Amino acid sequence: MRPEIFVETLEKVDTADVERPLSWIERAWNVNGVRKATILIGLMVLWQAYTVIGDIEPLMFPSFGAAAQALYQSLFHSDLLEKIWFSLSVLLIGYAIGLGLAAALVMWATSSRIGGDFLATCTAMFNPLPAIALLPLAMLWFGLGVASIVFVTIHSVLWAVSLSTHNGFRSVSETLRMIGRNYGLRGIPYVTKVLLPAALPSILTGMKVGWAFAWRTLIGAELVFGASSGSGGLGWFIFENSQNLETAHVFAGLFTVILIGIAVENLVFRNIELKTVYRWGMQR
To answer: Taking the mean position of all CA atoms in its chain, how far away is CA 116?
Structure first.
């Protein structure tokens, strides 16, 4: 190519195709946490504007500022931190036991036909059953104690995690299964080295669903349990303030439930997903 033709070709290159550097606003907007924080701030602004412009009765629906002030007072000048710890400790016990039982059930269902039939039958029977409906029986069997709440929490976790994990194992491609068998993998090594990594997105989904079910079941159980025994965690905090017509403090308790849920979703499950399924290219 002659030099003058080469220069002319370069001049015809569309400069719009050359990527320009992103501004700091665009770089910030690409961060997942910034987008979610923007949504939360927008909801707070709408809430505050609605209560101020609409002239809403504070006893019925307090402003965001009043609820935030009540949350601050409850955290630093009351026993809300103790109630948070009580609820989280009970939840973690039930969640851990539920995950262990789910792992045992899925292992049995994966290794034998009768185990798969048992898991399918039990999930069809108990997964649609609300855990809070079992609370009266749990209180009859275990009394007015932490064991009753742990029991219904286990029920919330067990079937959701078992169903998602088993479906994830069943969806693993036959090619991966054949590769594992060709390497001589059988039993537990076959599950841990082939099925478990391939089904990890489904397992994490089940764990997140189980966490959400367990969290809301715990709060609902504490509302009943606290009303019966006069103590408890966040559920009792919400119930007690509702009886005293402290609506702002009721919203403070609800804030706490929401903030803990957001923290677990973004700090725990999100990081696990980023370090596993997203890094491995299994999800986008």
So the answer is: 27
Over residues 46-60, the pLDDT tens digits come to: 888 888 887 777 778
DSSP summary character for residue 59:
T
36 vs 17, residue with greater confidence: 36
Alpha-carbon distance of 126 to 8, in angstroms, equals 74
Sole residue written with tokens 């025994």: 229
d(CA 15, CA 2) in angstroms, rounded, equals: 23
**Statement: residue 17 has pLDDT above 70:** no
152-167 pLDDT, tens digit each: 999 999 998 998 888 8
- Please give the model's pTM, rounded to 2 decimal places: 0.80
CA distances from 27 to 17, 21, 32, 273 (A): 20, 10, 11, 22
The structural domains of the chain, ordered by start, are 3-53 (no CATH), 72-275 (1.10.3720.10)
pLDDT given for residue 7 in this prediction: 46
CB-hemisphere CA count at 13 Å for 243? 10
163, 125 Cβ separation under 8 angstroms: no
Instruction: Compute the Cα dihedral for 169, 171, 176, 181 and give only its sign.
Output: positive
Max alpha carbon distance in the chain (Å)?
94
148 token code pair: 């009753």
Contact 220, 132 (CB under 8 A): yes
Tens-digit pLDDT profile for residues 80-131: 888 889 889 989 999 999 999 998 998 888 878 898 889 889 888 888 888 8
- Torsion angle defined by CA atoms of residues 39, 41, 43 and 48, in that order, rounded to the nearest 10 degrees: -170
| Burial class of 178 by CB neighbour count within 10 A (0 to 12, 13 to 18, 19+) | exposed
Q: How far apart are CA 79 and CA 176, in angstroms?
A: 53
Tokens 């966490």 -> residue? 211
